[in-house]
Design brief:
47% helix; 6-stranded mixed sheet
Length: 281
């Protein structure tokens, strides 16, 4: 897999999205437009935040992770390609954020509000909405909301139904153009012009290009190592299955010579239930 040239990166690429949206002046207007609320101050922002509990646990690498003046946590992700089980991915991200938000001695009441926001270049749900917002309520009583303080928004750049305000729709069209490699006129939006300027400034920074290439090479190496490990495991499992099939063939020959299932189980190491299954066959 070739590394995308730095000069060709757009807002839809992980690295560029993280670099741009970790700047408070860029992420704050986006959140305010999406959520319809005012954010007085962004207290901190982490780019590519890693959340991991154990050395062998499945880590979480968040694109943009921030907190506002009310200790509300926000995770904003960009998704150029569709991944399966997006809901479970959101659930895992949410659990990681929650575990790292609550001190050991704190009460559950202290758990902060949190928002997980995925900006997708493609329509995951195929319903055409520009914005999908999760809403939880009790079965049989839709008027009873299940409010645990967590919120999920899935944004769709490939929308056909404009169920969002002008600012968000313009941003999603901008993401769509970036995904398709098309030019986009940002002159109608001061916010998008600001984003374009931020991207242009990042591309002029040679240090950022080195950082991007280093990260991209590392990710390629990790994927290569993962594929190689997968092939090794596959070969190992294949040999294991082959040995097991060979033992079954021996057991079948023993059956044909009149040995009892109990004797065959003891001689081959196969479970008695497996030998009895062979007997029935």
């Amino acid at each position: 897999m070739a590394i995308k040239p730095f000069k060709d990166l757009s807002i839809v690429d992980d690295f560029m999205f993280s670099e741009v949206m970790r700047q408070p002046e860029n992420v704050k207007p986006f959140l305010e437009a999406l959520l319809g609320k005012s954010i007085a101050e962004v207290v901190y922002i982490d780019k590519q935040k890693d959340l991991k509990d154990e050395y062998d646990a499945h880590g979480i690498r968040l694109d943009v992770y921030l907190k506002d003046e009310h200790n509300t946590k926000y995770d904003v992700e960009i998704q150029a390609s569709l991944h399966s089980a997006l809901e479970k991915r959101v659930r895992y991200y949410q659990s990681g954020i929650d575990r790292h938000s609550l001190e050991i001695s704190a009460d559950y009441e202290d758990l902060s509000e949190s928002y997980v926001i995925f900006i997708c270049a493609q329509d995951y749900y195929k319903a055409g909405l520009a914005v999908y917002e999760r809403e939880s309520h009790m079965k049989g009583a839709p008027q009873v909301l299940y409010e645990d303080g967590s919120h999920v928004f899935i944004l769709n750049a490939d929308f056909t139904i404009e169920n969002a305000n002008h600012e968000i729709l313009s941003f999603l069209r901008y993401v769509r153009a970036g995904y398709k490699g098309e030019s986009f006129d940002v002159s109608h939006s001061s916010y998008l012009a600001q984003i374009e300027t931020a991207i242009s400034n990042i591309k002029k920074n040679s240090g950022r290009e080195v950082e991007y290439m280093t990260m991209a090479m590392k990710m390629l190496d990790e994927r290569k190592a993962g594929r190689e490990e997968g092939r090794k495991e596959g070969r190992k499992e294949g040999r294991k299955e082959g040995r097991k099939e060979g033992v079954k063939e021996v057991a079948q020959r023993m059956l044909s010579r009149g040995l009892s299932p109990e004797e065959i189980s003891g001689l081959t190491g196969l479970d008695l239930s497996e030998v009895e299954k062979l007997t029935r066959q």
